[in-house]
Amino acid sequence: MRNDNNVQSWYSLGIIWGGAMICIPSLLVGNTLITSMSLSKALAVAFVGYAIVVFIMVLQGMQSSDLGRPTVHVAGQVFGKKGSRTILSIILAIACLGWFGIQANVCGVALANLLAIYHLNIPVPLASFISGMVMVVSAIYGMKVLRILSYIAVPLLVIICVYGLVQTLTGEQLEFIRAYEPQGNMSFMDGLAVTIGSFALGAVIAGDYSQYSKKRSDVFKAATLGIIPAGVLMIGVGAILTIAYQTSDITAVFLHIATPFIGGVGLILATWKTNLVNAISGGIALINVFDVAKNKERMAIFVAGTIGTILAVVGILNYFTPIMSILSAMIPPVAGVMIASYWVIHKGHKDSWAEVEGVNRLGVFSWLVGAVIACMPVVFSFVPGLPTLPNQPMIGIIISFLIYYIGYRVSVQKTAILEEHR
């Protein structure tokens, strides 16, 4: 339960969520969108995508604010105590390992390109391996290293982005931005899948941070004013810099800002800082999934980081768009089940909430069906000969919502009938 000494203001929560958007993944989303759509369309996708993220965050965050509990405990009603811990831990592990691989790959490309300028040529897979293992080793030392990197990396990333933006909007690159024509043709829905997928996990586990909020309105203000402006701004920055420097490679963009050394170091430090969180969170998730003893945490962090490093070596960055689509398919259905239970069935009354022992099969089944159906367009796109399905990033959450709601009503009616015949 929430301790009144830990109560936080909406402003402080908004700063946390806004700060989470100021990162390389947000720039990567802008970089990805702008290669296949106009700047105005990319910004529209960013706004709509993050508005959907905020909608999920608000409903998820308010549950934890009401109950003063983190997401994994709140989800104990719809998935059961064991089911909740297992499902959320599996999703967290997959997301963290995937993001670790992507950012270690970005860091490896940046390192290889930076060294090449000084006539030191190493293959990108080797650079990604070195980057990933350095991140893994530093993650084992935990919060001390993370705190130091955060003090350096976040301000440096902001300074480089602002400098690059000013440079492009006041220089000759402005003509490139005005005359830009996208090479590809990404649909609005595909763009939404990429945008939602980039912060889907943050939306579903919003309660981990909002559990210390005193009022529901604090969650709404923090999410709306923390996520949307920062998210759209960072996607816009990533898109504009990509156009201005005429490259779809985010590492090449940074090497063009200021000097190659400053831009390269800024990118490396930013990915390093974020990957410490991914390795630590991924390690803890593995402990929960496999029910490993807590004293094995450092070993779990090492395993998580090593798996992420292997993904970086094989070039996971090349699959950024489908990975974001899979995350946007897998993760939101968790919220669909929780929203159906707390807000519709129990009408948002916290007194109706209670954890269920073991596994709640209806909740697990509802999430699984929604996630599988939502993932089908991505899976079909990788199998030759199968028809192309349109990407509908919200279909999973809707299906899981409906299955749980209908299943719950049917079970209640059956229980009532059995009671009448006793």
From TrEMBL:
User: Single GO cellular component annotation?
Assistant: plasma membrane
The residue range of the signal peptide is none
MF terms in GO: cytosine transmembrane transporter activity
Where it mainly occurs, coarsely classed, is: membrane
Entry annotated with the keyword Transmembrane helix: yes
Transmembrane regions: 12-34, 40-59, 87-116, 122-141, 148-166, 186-207, 219-244, 250-272, 300-320, 326-345, 365-383, 395-412
List the subcellular locations: Membrane
Q: Which UniProt keywords apply?
A: Membrane, Transmembrane, Transmembrane helix
What does the record say about its membrane topology? Multi-pass membrane protein
PANTHER family assigned: CYTOSINE PERMEASE (PTHR30569:SF0), CYTOSINE TRANSPORTER CODB (PTHR30569)
Q: Which family does it belong to?
A: Belongs to the purine-cytosine permease (2.A.39) family.
Q: What is this protein called?
A: Cytosine permease
Which source organism? Lysinibacillus sphaericus CBAM5
